[in-house]
UniProtKB/TrEMBL annotation:
Function according to Swiss-Prot or TrEMBL: Specifically methylates position 2 of adenine 2503 in 23S rRNA and position 2 of adenine 37 in tRNAs.
Name recorded for this polypeptide: Probable dual-specificity RNA methyltransferase RlmN
HAMAP family cross-referenced by the UniProt entry: RNA_methyltr_RlmN
Main localization category: cytoplasm
Annotated CDD domains: Radical_SAM
GO process terms (BP): rRNA base methylation; tRNA methylation
Binding site for [4Fe-4S] cluster: C119, C123, C126
Binding site for S-adenosyl-L-methionine: G166, E167, S198, S221, L222, H223, N297
EC number: 2.1.1.192
Domain Radical SAM core: 105-335
Species of origin: Candidatus Scatomonas pullistercoris
Amino acid sequence: MKVDDAREGLDIQSLYPEELKTKLQAMGEKPFRAAQLFAWLHQKQAETYREMTNLPEGLRERLSKEEPLTVLEPVDMRESRIDGTRKYLFRLPDGNVIESVWMKYHHGNSVCISSQVGCRMGCRFCASTLGGLTRSLRASEMLGQVYRIQKLTGERVSNVVVMGTGEPLDNYEQLVRFLRLISSEQGIHISQRNLTVSTCGLVPEMYRLAEEKLQITLALSLHAPNDEKRQALMPIASRYPLREVLAACGNYFEKTGRRITFEYALAAGENDGGKDAEELAGLLKGYNCHVNLIPINPVKERQFRRSGKKMVLDFQNKLEKCGINVTIRREMGGDIDGACGQLRKSYMDNQEKNL
Ligand code: SAH
């Protein structure tokens, strides 16, 4: 694994095995202790040094003082009565709260994690961006969401999607660390093919990611068939025109062999018409891709409404007739306050009221 500059000031759970070895050697420890410690942190997901019983007591005491562990504290959980989906709210060591979602599918359990506290991308239909960006998460805080949920549910997590609050490519170094650590054979070992990163389309980072030699799926939030409509929904579209974003997607496919997923949130009267579908089909012609239609989750601070069932099906049919592979996102946990970031938002609104 590559060592990069982002290790400065990192907590111990965000370090690669080689970095852990260097750290322990600098503390005067034998190199094999690093493998033991890594297994405790990432395979057994220990939350205290106390439980690491095969490490010498002196070392455990020293680590407790010098390298406090990053532990996520669950502060709220809501479970859907419809499909068992659970939304967790976690408190980070600095007091910030983040949201993660656990979903059960027939092919296994999936966790949707946050990559930042808040977001600065400003997509007009999204709840996560309403308060702006507070800070990016460390790799350990992304890992912690998966580890904690696996412990709390007692069930193995087989898929992770980085589709919660935040723009993952706006937190590039920590994201890549997270992806390598979560797929590490010495850790929880989730296959890279079962990892998906969703981006609003940060073009330079998409090129960079294509060079990382990762087998993950890249999902692009497209949401519109042309620049004008995309700019009305997503401020980032004014920085990177569709032509550039799609070229970056093409490059990702070429370099990794991984088919791109295009996400398209349908908002009534905005981007869900027959003409939009035709234009979209033209735009994606020749791409080896998959389109995921998401009926928009209305956010009360925003004016967007969800497209009707018939509109969604018509939209799907039109794309399929043009030979495009389409799915409609199965709605999960519709009764527990759908849209990303809404549980966190209602928690924070309540905190404010109580002050
Ligand atoms: N920042 C990343 C990942 C987080 S959002 C991105 O933009 O892709 C995950 C997906 O949910 C994105 O496709 C995003 O556009 C979409 N999304 C956000 N708010 C939504 C809402 N209210 N209804 C439906 N989809 C939404």
